[in-house]
Specification:
about 20% helix; alpha+beta; three-stranded antiparallel β-sheet
Length: about 100
């Protein structure tokens, strides 16, 4: 029986990260958590590409670097959207009042 591989994008990605799921930095799939056979901390393992990382060393990295041309920068009123907003694709900055990422 094969396992279903989930590769969330956009708002779904934000929801998975907010819910505490580990996302593979190599291919973007939701990672499995398993016990370390050597008795250390748990290990996250990607069911899609096989990448593994210790739970304590894991950090989701959005390696997409966006260059902001002056015309794009002006369209956001000089305010560069955070990486999560770029992934969501919502109507930034008009979505700030309804988005839980901006709750204080």
């Amino acid at each position: 029986m094969s396992q279903k591989i989930i590769k969330p994008e956009g708002m779904e990605l934000i929801e998975y990260l907010n819910d505490g799921y580990a996302i593979c930095n190599k291919c973007g799939a939701v990672m499995d958590r398993r016990e370390d056979p050597n008795g250390g901390c748990d290990i996250y393992a990607c069911p899609s590409c096989g990448w593994e990382v210790d739970e304590m060393e894991y950090e989701y990295e959005d390696d997409e670097e966006v260059e902001w041309a002056s015309s794009v920068h002006k369209s956001y009123g000089g305010d560069i959207p955070p990486a999560g907003c770029r992934a969501c694709g919502g109507p930034y900055p008009h979505c700030k009042t309804s988005c839980k990422l901006f709750d204080n």
